[in-house]
Request: fold
Amino acid sequence: MTVLPSLSSFRRGWLLRLAASRRFQVWAARIPFVRRIARAEGAALFDVVAGFVNAQVLMALVELRVLHLLQDGPMAVPQMAGLCAVPPERMQVLLQAGAGLGLLKRHRDGRFGLALRGASLLAVPGLQAMILHHRALYADLADPVAFLRDGRDTQLARFWPYVFGAAGAVDPQVTATYSELMAESQVLVAEDTLRMAPLTGVQRLMDVGGGTGAFLAAVGRAYPQMQLDLFDLPVVLEGARTRLAASGFAGRLALHPGSFRDDPLPVGADAISLVRVLYDHDDSTVLRLLQAVHTALPVGGRLIISEPMSGGAVPDRATDVYFAIYTMAMQTGRTRSAAEIEAILSAAGFTSICVHTGFRPFITSVITARRG
Ligand SMILES: CC(C)=CCC/C(C)=C/CC/C(C)=C/C=C/C(C)=C/C=C/C=C(C)/C=C/C=C(C)/C=C/C=C(C)/C=C/CC(C)(C)O
Ligand SMILES: C[S@@+](CC[C@H](N)C(=O)[O-])C[C@H]1O[C@@H](n2cnc3c(N)ncnc32)[C@H](O)[C@@H]1O
Reply:
């Protein structure tokens, strides 16, 4: 909590009782210094209250391709209304809301254009597809208490059938959809992972659960001499073949179809990466997977784990809300803190465990470890 830094629990309790008193709030609104804190708290609280509406305005802007349409310059409301097939008076409200969110800019002549944040959104790989797929998550959260008490049949779990193992990933069309979403959203994850955990000295890297090879492609570009191995479910690798053939890495990339639930991992790599894999699975699957990675690595071999992690003792706004609820809706895994992952790594026999908290925790954080 930002306004209550490190107070004793007695003073903290006293301050919390004050904040929860309506009479104190009325008084605080009149006193100059306290008024600033009260206003900031009010605005922050309203942001939480209005979150769903903000997200739905964003959804409409993306689905109607408003940001794309404004890419070449500002437009008048009636023209936008025609292009988006939305009545002009409603379009006005949507565009004004987009400007309120800082995504659009309202010009003096009443036209709307892109703001810096809206323009940035267009350039984030896969973000628009990610926003559109939130429909499934929002449907699951329509009744959040029912979801928490008994959220067993979720739309999101059906969106990502591979989490149920090889048996779930049978439909190549469905597999192609999620593989594409993962590959696009991988770009920033790869950037941050390689910045936090450079692969200097690694001869051969195996990416387990590497999807269609987007992480390995980034690694291959950064380390032109490295041998690359990709391990994933057969149906996923089938889809990856054409993409990888065109990537120019074919000569130094080997594909290993298999399921880490049922098959041993191939040996030979001196480093193994697990990028956005652990949080899809329960603790016992994660422990067995890390034990299998331990067995597949040579002594001193390196493991790189990269995924958004819970803040643990210091709850984090992005990962402890979005990713924790998201992975709960997927049903099979959970968003773990670095400390929780460290504990499983130790149980699997890893040493030299090192946590690199992400500078963008909503993109990823990294843990590295070695086979002792
Ligand atoms: C030079 C000066 C002084 C000024 C210039 C001004 C200027 C031009 C500034 C540009 C600003 C700029 C560079 C902005 C860059 C913005 C960026 C990089 C924004 C990035 C945003 C990324 C976001 C919002 C990422 C969201 C990621 C999400 C929602 C990921 C979801 C992932 C999921 C659900 C994964 C699921 C996997 C599963 C299924 C659980 O296994
Ligand atoms: C969230 S995706 C991450 C893909 C990629 N690492 C990335 O970050 O974009 C999880 C990946 O794990 C793979 N996976 C899930 N269960 C698996 C299993 N039992 N054996 C091998 N791969 C599996 C999925 O097919 C999928 O490609």
